[in-house]
Design brief:
Blueprint: H1 2-14, H2 17-33, H3 46-50, H4 59-67, H5 71-77, H6 81-106
Length: 107
Amino acid sequence: MLKAISRSVTAGWYSLYLPEAMAWLAALLAMALMEPGEAHLFSFCPFSYVLEWCPGCGLGHAIAWLFRGEFVASWQAHPLGVPAVLLLSFRSGKLLYMYYRNHKSEL
């Protein structure tokens, strides 16, 4: 009985692995394709509207510079650009691995 409940709970969670992985990969792709030298038109960040300062400001530009191979410009835009790309890539890879591992065990 407990094994069946555990399996149904696990099945509910791993069905969300693929959408989350695709969202992170789409976000990385969008940042890779943006033009880093231009100013942004709008921001979803509430800090930039209220405080006019944000601890993550420039992170998207840093990732865009990083995908172009401009490591110095990436560092100047935001020092956490490289760790962010590594973290999001690792998270996406792990989610895809867990999804396909669990999906394969169902078949």
